[in-house]
């Protein structure tokens, strides 16, 4: 047999083998004959054989709630509010003749010098805010700032060396992890309940904002939360704050299985904004968005099943300037995957105007990445402090010099420098009067006075001292 014939036979055999292999592969790929196993559990066990057990959340000892409860409870406070007029009056019969609405909730001390986080809805439109500590000490709180779009508010009481709850990391919590909710449901102080994290980044559509900037990315738990728990702490087993309890899913008004907390990752940013600027600094992408759904995938021929679909890009916005377009699907922000609008809104809400975010997106089947410099609602990249007015209702105001505070033994105050016709003058207040307290809340400076008077409706109790040292208490109809 010559060499050519041998090579021909080998070529035919190889071609047959290749054809058989390719045919088998195509058959296996396009023809589903069903699984080659009869037990799902058997299949699961087989697939998981090569995966080691996750020991990140394992504990060699029984689950211990006591340490976290003991650590956190002293730093959770009871908050009661009065609406429709001051609870303070020079008229002893006022509380009988003009009763005021009251409500209550919870708050969490987050610094040893008296800063407290709570829900905006707990103190919304309140005329006075009273804080009772776990040891029954009572304080009247000043409102530092509030943010309806995240349902958060920052309060301050005049106290030192207070117990406080350390911030945890809500990004690291996992579904199924044990958590504790601590608050004051039904005016029952220092109530502790336990549950697990049921889900993250939940949007239950309960918040509203005049500019449509509300952010809902709640931690969902099954820890029992009831009216009065609002503003209380959600903590992990290390006693670290991972959320502020804000809402419940209910048809009756009481707990019905699930509760929702604002993640501490967002709380931290909002508290810092309110502390530094007196108002929230929101960085915006400037897009109208919706979740990627099966219907959206089909109608837009998308090649992803999760993400955030851009319906519209506002002209001149951060997104517009970065090159993002309608029809793009955002899949990650700063290398953090975003599977829905709630996650995207939360990650963006952690940023201030002027900060840069890296946006990963899908466009016509191809991935891209752009840098976007966030802008505020007015379309600039500036951060702005809340304006302070030095003239209110005919009174020209000024800070009190430190030397004069020392001379009068005062911690702070606001000097009425000049008076023209208005509410202050009608009440009998004179020029050169130093306001030290409004409705029992200490007034340290003009900024404090601005915030205090924003809250007031009806009668206001003013306490202070003349530059000559004479103390006075005056009622002002506001």
SSE arrangement:
Elements: H1 3-30, H2 40-48, H3 66-72, E1 76-83, H4 94-97, E2 101-109, E3 115-118, H5 120-123, E4 128-132, E5 138-140, E6 142-147, E7 152-156, E8 178-183, E9 191-202, E10 218-221, E11 233-235, E12 241-249, E13 258-263, H6 264-277, E14 287-291, H7 294-300, E15 308-313, H8 318-322, E16 329-333, E17 336-337, H9 341-349, E18 356-363, E19 366-373, E20 391-392, E21 395-399, H10 402-408, E22 414-419, H11 423-427, E23 433-438, E24 441-442, H12 446-455, E25 459-466, E26 471-477
Antiparallel strand pairs: 1-2, 1-4, 2-3, 3-7, 4-5, 6-7, 8-9, 8-11, 9-10, 10-13, 11-12, 12-13, 14-15, 15-16, 16-17, 16-18, 18-19, 20-21, 21-22, 22-23, 23-24, 23-25, 25-26
Question: Can you walk through the features of this model?
Answer:
- The structure is a single chain.
- The protein has 478 residues and is an alpha+beta fold.
- The chain folds into three domains: 61-280, Beta Barrel (Thrombin, subunit H), CATH 2.40.10; 287-373, PDZ domain (Pdz3 Domain), CATH 2.30.42; 391-477, PDZ domain (Pdz3 Domain).
- Helices cover 23% and strands 31% of the residues.
- It has helices at 3-30, 40-48, 66-72, 94-97, 120-123, 264-277, 294-300, 318-322, 341-349, 402-408, 423-427, 446-455, and strands at residues 76-83, 101-109, 115-118, 128-132, 138-140, 142-147, 152-156, 178-183, 191-202, 218-221, 233-235, 241-249, 258-263, 287-291, 308-313, 329-333, 336-337, 356-363, 366-373, 391-392, 395-399, 414-419, 433-438, 441-442, 459-466, 471-477.
- The strands form four sheets. It has a seven-stranded antiparallel beta sheet. Strands 20, 21, 22, 23, 24, 25 and 26 form a seven-stranded antiparallel beta sheet that branches. Strands 8-9-10-13-12-11 form a six-stranded antiparallel barrel.
- A hairpin with an 8-residue loop joins β12 and β13.
- The N and C termini lie far apart (117 Å).
- Residues 24-33 and 52-56 have low confidence and may be disordered.
């Amino acid at each position: 047999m010559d060499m050519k014939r041998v090579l021909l036979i080998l070529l035919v055999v190889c071609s047959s083998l290749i054809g058989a292999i390719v045919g088998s592969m195509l058959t296996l790929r396009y023809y589903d004959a069903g699984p080659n196993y009869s037990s799902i559990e058997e299949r699961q066990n087989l697939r998981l054989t090569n995966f080691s057990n996750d020991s990140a959340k394992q504990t060699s000892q029984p689950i211990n709630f006591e340490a976290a409860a003991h650590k956190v409870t002293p730093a959770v406070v009871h908050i009661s509010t009065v609406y429709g007029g001051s609870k303070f009056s020079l008229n002893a019969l006022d509380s009988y003749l003009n009763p005021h609405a009251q409500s209550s909730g919870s708050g969490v001390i987050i610094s040893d010098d008296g800063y407290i986080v709570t829900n905006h809805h707990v103190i919304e439109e309140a005329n006075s805010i009273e804080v009772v500590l776990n040891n029954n000490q009572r304080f009247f709180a000043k409102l530092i700032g509030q943010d309806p779009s995240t349902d958060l508010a920052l309060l301050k009481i005049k106290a030192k060396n207070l117990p406080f709850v350390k911030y945890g990391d809500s990004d690291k919590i996992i579904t199924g992890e044990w958590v504790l909710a601590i608050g004051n449901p039904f005016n029952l102080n220092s109530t502790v309940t336990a549950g697990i994290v049921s889900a993250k980044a939940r949007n239950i559509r309960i918040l509203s904002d005049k500019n449509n900037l509300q952010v809902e990315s709640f931690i969902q738990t099954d820890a029992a939360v009831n009216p009065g728990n609002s503003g209380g702490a959600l903590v992990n087993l290390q006693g670290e704050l991972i959320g502020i309890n804000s809402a419940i899913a209910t048809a009756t008004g009481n707990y019905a299985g699930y509760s929702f907390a604002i993640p501490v990752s967002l709380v931290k940013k909002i508290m810092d904004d309110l502390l530094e600027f007196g108002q929230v600094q929101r960085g915006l992408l400037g897009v109208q968005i919706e979740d990627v759904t099966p219907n959206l995938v089909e109608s837009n021929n998308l090649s992803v099943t999760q993400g955030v679909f851009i319906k519209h890009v506002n002209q001149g916005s951060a997104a517009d300037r970065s090159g993002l377009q309608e029809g793009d699907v955002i899949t990650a922000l700063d290398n953090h995957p975003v599977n829905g609008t709630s996650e995207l809104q939360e990650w963006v809400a952690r940023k201030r105007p002027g900060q840069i975010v890296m946006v990963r997106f899908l466009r016509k089947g191809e991935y891209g990445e752009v840098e976007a410099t966030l802008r505020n609602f007015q379309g600039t990249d500036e951060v702005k402090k809340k304006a302070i007015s030095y003239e209110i209702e005919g009174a020209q105001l000024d800070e009190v010099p430190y030397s004069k505070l020392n001379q009068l033994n005062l911690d702070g105050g606001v000097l009425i420098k000049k008076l023209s016709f208005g509410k202050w003058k009608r009440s009998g207040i004179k020029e050169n009067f130093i306001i030290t307290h409004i409705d029992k809340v200490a007034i340290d400076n003009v900024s404090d006075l601005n915030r205090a008077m924003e809250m007031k409706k009806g009668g206001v109790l003013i306490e202070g001292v003349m530059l000559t040292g004479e103390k006075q208490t005056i009622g002002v109809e506001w």
